[in-house]
Write a structure and sequence with these properties.
With 83 residues, the protein is mostly helical. It is built from 3 helices and no strands. It has one domain. The longest helix has 50 residues.
């Protein structure tokens, strides 16, 4: 696991050292998988948030264009990847 002595972990989580030793190999794998799933969930959440921001930006741009306000288009022209 992390290199921390089993007796320290056992004391912290109220489990016997023998139980930790018995389950050490598959528990380590389960911990790694859980950490990977957590990272994926965080990434998915960030992606959803970014898509929401992008959608709002497109809505605002459409409204500005419908209102005849072309300032946003002019600003985009001056940026890399603009137009």
């Amino acid at each position: 696991m992390s290199g921390e002595p089993l007796w320290n972990i056992a004391k912290r989580v109220s489990v016997s050292v023998a139980a930790l030793h018995r389950h050490k190999t598959h528990a380590a794998g389960a911990i790694v998988k859980a950490a990977e799933r957590r990272e994926e969930a965080i990434g998915d959440s960030l992606l959803v948030g970014m898509r929401r921001v992008q959608q709002k930006a497109w809505e605002l741009l459409a409204k500005m264009e419908a209102d005849g306000d072309h300032r946003a288009q002019l600003r985009r022209c001056g940026r890399p990847g603009g137009v």
